[in-house]
Amino acid sequence: MIDRRIKFRHIQCFVEIVRQQSMKRAAERLHLTQPAISKTLKELEEIIGAALLVRNRAGVALTRQGEVFLHFAEMSVAALQQGLDGVEQLGRGDRATLSVGALPSVAARLMPDVAREFAELAPETTLRITDGPHAYLIDQLRRGNLDLVIGRLGPPDTMKGISFTQLYNEYVEFVVRCGHPLLDDPDMRRIGEWTVIFPPEASAIRSLVERVLIAHGVGDIPHRIESVSGAFGRNFARRSDAIWIISAGVVANEIAEGSLVRLPFDNAITSGPVGLMARPDGQSTPEEQVFRVAINNVVAKLPA
């Protein structure tokens, strides 16, 4: 049972101190005096029975207990803000919209669960999902047509002016239909004997795929189709002898069901971070804050 001595002001002060990394700046943001915000934090720590923050030269740092508590404190603040905004929107008779771009691996693996979680947390917000290659989605984010993008961290030149919050790591997989002849003698150097569905230039995984092919002595691939379309790849790979090179998240369900099979190639060097991308100069809206809570809830349930 929640200790009734914990008030919203305690949670709000703690979260703001962490965000600002400063007691003074947090006090200014909340229109409080510094002694008042220090007292509020002390009250919270006494109620919980643990130190949540320690002061250092950089400002403040979370203790281990503080790291655990912060996650749920941010969820509480974001959920309450969403509730207040929802009441306001109902009063105005309008409906908020959040536009999110999702790279193919995220659209297939993560977004269905995130959409359900977000719908429960923010039932009055319309979630608009756009999928596509990395370059296209980042361009739409910069233009303001998307609020957030979820996917692989792209090459440095494509990420200028974009903030990135890592969620998990993902590999690139080589997959084929059941009974594919390469399964009898899996050698990456032989993939050129068949049609290969290859990531195009605009995709985040292109450079990783080229790197792993070079590392395994694979030369030019004469018969290839460049695409990151999940719908095309699934159907073409299942109905032909094509080899599909794609992020693991795109084919996670098919591999689990057995309709596609992972070739046992060494793909360690294709590991890369998947995360949430945003414009750092844009102020996070309540809808974005709740979406971050939703995606963190889903990622926490992913198998290690």
Automatic annotation (TrEMBL):
<comment type="similarity">
    <text>Belongs to the LysR transcriptional regulatory family.</text>
</comment>
<dbReference type="InterPro" id="IPR036390">
    <property type="entry name" value="WH_DNA-bd_sf"/>
</dbReference>
<protein>
    <submittedName>
        <fullName>Pca operon transcription factor PcaQ</fullName>
    </submittedName>
</protein>
<dbReference type="Pfam" id="PF03466">
    <property type="entry name" value="LysR_substrate"/>
</dbReference>
<dbReference type="InterPro" id="IPR005119">
    <property type="entry name" value="LysR_subst-bd"/>
</dbReference>
<keyword id="KW-0238">DNA-binding</keyword>
<dbReference type="InterPro" id="IPR012787">
    <property type="entry name" value="TF_PcaQ"/>
</dbReference>
<dbReference type="InterPro" id="IPR036388">
    <property type="entry name" value="WH-like_DNA-bd_sf"/>
</dbReference>
<dbReference type="InterPro" id="IPR050950">
    <property type="entry name" value="HTH-type_LysR_regulators"/>
</dbReference>
<dbReference type="InterPro" id="IPR000847">
    <property type="entry name" value="LysR_HTH_N"/>
</dbReference>
<dbReference type="Pfam" id="PF00126">
    <property type="entry name" value="HTH_1"/>
</dbReference>
<keyword id="KW-0805">Transcription regulation</keyword>
<keyword id="KW-0804">Transcription</keyword>
<feature type="domain" description="HTH lysR-type">
    <location>
        <begin position="6"/>
        <end position="63"/>
    </location>
</feature>
